[in-house]
Specification:
The protein is mainly α. The protein has helices at residues 2-14, 19-39, 43-65.
Length: 66
């Protein structure tokens, strides 16, 4: 499982276009894969991913208006 998650995370990170987003995406992918493997339920990684996206959108909005 780990090698598959690592390869997928590395590829996903590379296609994000820049190092900052790539590293974030790769680490997030590893965390989400670990969470799925640990709990064996899909809704928890989906909820975690949604919360991370919502946080990023809110932070972008706050910083845009600041």
């Amino acid at each position: 499982m780990f090698l598959g998650a690592l390869g997928s995370a590395a590829f996903f990170g590379l296609v994000h276009g820049n190092w900052a987003q790539g590293i974030y995406a790769a680490l997030m992918g590893l965390i989400l894969a670990w969470l799925y493997e640990k709990k064996n339920r899909l809704w928890e990684p989906v909820l975690f991913h949604s919360a991370a996206n919502l946080t990023a959108m809110l932070m972008r909005g706050l910083l845009w208006h600041w």
